[in-house]
Design goal:
The structure is a single chain. The protein is mainly alpha-helical and 183 residues long. It is built from nine helices and no strands. The protein is rod-shaped and about 85 Å long.
Length: 183
């Protein structure tokens, strides 16, 4: 893309004032530097867009003065602009926190014989109530609940194997009806 911009600039250089051409070269060089040294940009699920045609026609003198002015340093984009590369949500620390929370939820649900299908069928409000009862800060996404359901599936396999009966014991079956149905 940068090469295409440079070719277009060279092809139309006779129509562009020298100081404007010099400024455009600086902008292109700055963009190349940002791309080479900046963080990787990840776009997930976005459609491929055809590039907009660039119009490098001669510019009015008043606009040339604005273009020649020193630009203010670019501020980094806010974190909300890049949800696909959120470092906390997908980092190692976040994964460890999610697993710890999911283990506590899975054990609490297991003790009350609440299945993974039931948990995923509950409303967010009811799952948050369950999390608070389990002594866990309610997860902000379904991702933690899905990990908890996976852990419960492993616990079911362990219980079926009979190799560690004490690990698969359920301690609060009397609370099953209280928590298995929303109310």
């Amino acid at each position: 893309m940068v090469a295409e911009l440079r070719r277009t600039l060279e092809g139309q250089s006779q129509d562009i004032a020298p100081h404007v051409r010099e400024r455009l070269e600086e902008i292109i060089q700055g963009a190349v530097h940002t791309i080479e040294t900046g963080a990787e940009i990840v776009a997930v699920g976005l459609p491929d867009l055809a590039p907009e045609p660039v119009d490098l026609a001669p510019v009015e003198p008043a606009v040339v003065e604005l273009a020649a002015a020193e630009p203010e340093p670019a501020e980094p984009a806010p974190a909300a602009a890049k949800p696909a590369s959120d470092p906390f949500r997908h980092g190692a620390h976040a994964e460890a926190n999610r697993l710890t929370k999911a283990r506590e939820l899975a054990r609490w649900l297991w003790d009350r014989n609440i299945s993974g299908e039931q948990v995923l069928g509950f409303t967010n409000k009811w799952r948050n109530k369950i999390a608070r009862a389990a002594g866990v800060n309610p997860p902000s996404t379904l991702e933690t609940w899905t990990v908890a359901v996976d852990l419960m599936t492993r616990m079911e396999e362990l219980a079926a194997s009979g190799t560690q009966p004490e690990a698969s014991e359920r301690h609060h079956l009397d609370e099953h009806e209280q928590w298995a149905t929303e109310g």
